[in-house]
Amino acid sequence: MVDHLELDKVAPFLIKLFEIVSSPASDNLVCWSEHGESFKIVDRTKFAQDVLPFYFKHDNLRSFIRQLNIYGFQRCQNSSGRDRTMEFFHPMFTRNGMRNLKDIKRGNQSKKNDTVEDGVDEVEQPQAKRPRVDYSTFKTDVARLQKNLEEFEHDLKQHTLQVQQKLAYILSALDDTPGAVQQPPADSEQRGSSPELSAGALL
Question: What is the spatial distance between Cα 39 and Cα 89, in angstroms, rounded to a whole number?
């Protein structure tokens, strides 16, 4: 058994983590490795859905892994790329080393409070500095675009006027054309018999 005074020095996250890994009820989802010096998350989806909410009141696996990183846990590389098991290691976190939990310290991470209501240490993400925006450049670009738009509208009006003038000229020319179109004179053979045929007829 571990002295209660020693547990008071251990972060709540580490105590809950030890309980999660050591619980036989969830061995099919998370368990100690064979040598007991690391632990494995066997089924990521079910672990996040069934185990995390029971201990931490959330099902965010990424948040859980961030907490591991803060306390210095390292992820072990899988021997096979097809193996989706996640294995984590810390020299002070072992199956028979609950007394060593007090020696696991939080890394140098900025934080607002040591703990939150669900027992998971809260990590405050540093806010990225917003780049300064030069609004004068925007105003210049807007003015330039507005001027280009006005010039385009002016050119469009001029082009439309020219088209209308040409169309009016064509319509006027069509109105001046006489309605009756003279047929070309008929060929001499169509207007009368040839002299040779007339002379033959007389003979």
Answer: 7
